[in-house]
């Protein structure tokens, strides 16, 4: 249902349920006698005690939506999620699009711990840092690379490669850093190397937490 403000869209089952879901309350206009305690039986389920109308697909979905739990009665039996949903370990059903989005929608974390669906997120050091070779999630300041002092736990921020000037003539888009393994391009704050490139920088996702 499209609200009169032409901005919001709500589920059709929310219309005339006695609760204003549109900011302009247009979902409760022109409802006649239909409202709280008078649910649309084809689209809604009425909670036994409160009379509140909820979407029919919330009945027997493994999540208690009615205060009295009448939408999850014993007669529901085993919860079976529709093909468009993911079945949580606690039998709750959530949309597949909610998997691996960083939020615990299941309530037991199973939508975020599912190895089959959630790949391992990439790790990036913060701007101005360099990742120690062969050490996951271990970063040091770029000024500590090739400074004749071992800063990485495995000491691999120092080596014979530090005595070579590979940065000469390098085509980095921002700046070049000499490392024991040769020259690497470094990016400005808020940027990182473009995937598949060792020279071009790109803006980082502002919602991404570097080093997390």
From TrEMBL:
One Gene Ontology term of the molecular function aspect: hormone binding
UniProt-listed GO biological process terms: receptor-mediated endocytosis
Gene3D superfamilies: Low-density Lipoprotein Receptor (4.10.400.10)
Domain of life, per lineage: Eukaryota
Membrane topology reported for the UniProt record: Single-pass membrane protein
Residue ranges that the Swiss-Prot or TrEMBL entry lists as coiled coil: none
Localization in the cell: Membrane
A single cellular component GO annotation: apical plasma membrane
Disulfide bonds: 16-31, 81-93, 88-106
Domain EGF-like calcium-binding, residue spans: 163-202
Keyword annotations from UniProtKB, A to Z: Disulfide bond, Glycoprotein, Lipoprotein, Membrane, Receptor, Repeat, Signal, Transmembrane, Transmembrane helix
Main location: membrane
PANTHER family: LOW-DENSITY LIPOPROTEIN RECEPTOR-RELATED PROTEIN 2-RELATED (PTHR22722), MEGALIN, ISOFORM A (PTHR22722:SF14)
Protein name, entry field: Low-density lipoprotein receptor-related protein 2-like
Protein source organism: Hirondellea gigas
Lineage: Eukaryota, Metazoa, Ecdysozoa, Arthropoda, Crustacea
């Amino acid at each position: 249902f499209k609200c009169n403000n032409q901005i919001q869209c709500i589920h059709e089952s929310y219309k005339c349920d006695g609760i204003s879901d549109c900011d302009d309350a247009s979902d409760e206009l022109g409802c006649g006698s239909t409202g709280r305690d008078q649910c649309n039986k084809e689209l809604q389920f009425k909670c036994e005690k409160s009379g509140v109308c909820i979407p029919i697909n919330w009945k027997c979905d493994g999540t208690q939506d009615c205060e009295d739990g009448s939408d999850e009665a014993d007669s529901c039996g085993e919860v079976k999620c529709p093909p468009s949903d993911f079945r949580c370990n606690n039998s709750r059903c959530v949309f597949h699009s909610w998997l691996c989005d960083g939020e615990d929608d299941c309530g037991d974390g199973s939508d975020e711990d599912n190895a089959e669906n959630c790949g391992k997120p990439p790790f990036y050091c913060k701007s101005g840092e360099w990742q120690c070779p062969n050490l996951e999630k271990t970063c040091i300041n770029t000024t500590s690379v090739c400074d004749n002092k071992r800063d990485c736990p495995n000491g691999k921020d120092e080596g014979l490669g530090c005595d070579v000037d590979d940065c000469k003539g390098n085509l980095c888009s921002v700046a070049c850093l000499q490392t024991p393994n040769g020259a690497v391009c470094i990016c400005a704050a808020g940027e990182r190397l473009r995937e598949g490139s060792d020279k071009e920088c790109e803006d980082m996702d502002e919602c991404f937490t570097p080093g997390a």
